[in-house]
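Worked example 3. Consider a protein that binds dioxothiomolybdenum(VI) ion.
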Amino acid sequence: MSIGQPTTRYEAPIKVTGSALYAADNYPDHLLHGVIVASPVAAGTLKNIDTARAEATPGVVRILKRADMPPLGEIGMPAAVTHMPLTTDEILWEGQPVAIVLGETLEAAEEVAALVRVEVDTVSAATPGHGQLERPENGFAPAHDIKGDVVGGLDRAEMTVSEQYYQPTRNHNPMETSATVASWDGDSLTLWDASQMSLNPLAVMKAAFGLSQDKVRVISPHTGGGFGVKGYVWPHLILAAAAAKVADRPVKIQLSRAQQYGQTGHQPECRQKVTLGAMADGTLVAMRHEAINTTSIKDTQFEQSATATRTYYACPAIELDQYVERINLIQSTPMRAPVEGPGSWALESAMDELAIKLDMDPLDLRLRNFAEVDPFDGKPWSSNKLREAYAEAAEIFGWRRRAQMPRRDGVWALGRGMSMASTFCARFPGQALVRIQADGQVYVEASANDIGTGNQTVFQLVAAEALGTEPDRVKVRWGDTRYPPAGPVYGSSQTIGTGGAVRLAALDARARLEAFGAPGTGPIDLGAVMRASGEAEIVGKGKFDFGDAPMSFNGSGTPYAMQSWGANFVEVAVDRDLGLIRLRRVVARYSAGRIINPLTARSQMIGSIIWEWGKATMEASRVDHRHARFLAKNLSNVAVPVNADIPHDAIDVGFIEEFDEHAGPTGARGIGELGGTGVAAAIANAVYDAVGVRVREVPILPAHILDALG
Ligand code: MOS
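Given these inputs, the predicted complex is written out as structure tokens:
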């Protein structure tokens, strides 16, 4: 058990024995159950809430409306929604909360909520494709950005591709729906929340209720999936805390699966156009990437899909041109592999189309345009082993021998496609403590959340290596804002940020041990050193940060550009008569810095590839344009991949040996969301290879195949 060895999860025993507590598992004394009553229409003005029948029902304690709400302070990011429900009569989306029923039991509150009648003066609602376009300003780079002479480049190009690529709104569908329990003790607030970043609810509660930092505590040790939807703060958290304040009792709000669709975010619809100009030998001379993503009426999520084209390929002329479109749905939000996830779907499809037009191997086209430095600003990469990833994955897949591979298997036509994977490197500040007890036992403390990716094991391995001790000597305390502030479990950033802080804390503790005769490097007997020291405890502090900057994106503030990379090779089978598509195999290799725990790292990448299978062939949250609402809000009508969709041993992932000394103290870069880039395009490229049908819309459905084949 050490860094680089497959290590089972630190928190596995408490999860498999059922003793790990998730947010909704908490039942403080005198708890009330809150059920949100929502607007049934997407746009208008709230006219009346009729509670006459509801109030006569036993078990209901109270029904809170706008007039019952305490005054709230101004909120902004990390609150996803600033159009705060129950503080206004303006309705902007179907599902917008208009009242909260508080009951002694969940059943009573749900029954009563169903009896409340909501009347809205309706106006027409904007749906995807019909909203106002706006240039967003809240990205990592300007929405419109250009380098070089794109028009001239396209003019000079010997071959061009210019196509549009579509992806629909999609929901995150974590197994655990969002849940919050709020409890006040005087003017102190405790929240148990299903969160990807406990410091976000803490910041929003401070602003909404005018509290100082020490008056809010967020406890969030386990989160049952999030994929981005539990990153920012949604209105139900504020409503739970407000209701608890008004009722003077703790309040729990757990969203139902259907409510999750109306009261938390989704991935926006993305419409993209990619224009590529190349010389006959495949050298890119101009690239233009246009993108529009939907967002809500008042708050702006800028998906930044075109950012993929900033970093993927060397090219003298690049233009990015991006808009958001305002519609009447709950605010959209990042979803597993934001930015390059949608962006690579378009770009990596277009690159395949260009390769086919040039009669070039798509792998050779990518190697021809390999970016030796950051294409946009010329900075050197902190580390980049993409070439090695291409070579190893291609060899294992047999890419260069594919002409000799069978084209059919019974009724199935077989096809192979490839793509590049790459995602941004987000580095968030984090702090950690390493405490060495008198008996040599070590505790790592950081407020970090656990979303199942294996953080705690990473902290354990990193601390043990730096201290020169065995990982099983290290225990981890996490998931509580009483511990030092740690970075988020989003943006594939936890190992770099909090992992980096843990390493720095362990090195600090180790330096303190040197005063008692311990060696500065190599293994040490912590128990013996502590006995010799006579100290009850030695505490090391670690802080990973970027001065005053809230974060570093792709190496901002450093001389280096930072990305994670990979190569995807996919084989699919397509039934020409039924239009069915089946996954046969995937080989992917990644360049992502040092891999701390190959066991959980492998799981992350397999999960992301399956996630992309869902995006490419199954998932969509379709919007009913007549009513501006999702057609289906449950897992029986929204398809997501299940085990039966993924053949046993079909996915082969691995990492190129690498240590990125610039990205952070652990040598690691981000991995999780990297696996969610490029794969959907590789699948579409493989479908084209199988049956000659180019589908520029995900999910690729049987109808696309059958319509094209006639
Ligand atoms: Mo991911 S959208 O950064 O949780």
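Take a moment to read the result before moving on. Residues 168 and 269 are 4 Å apart (CA to CA). The chain has a mean pLDDT of 97.
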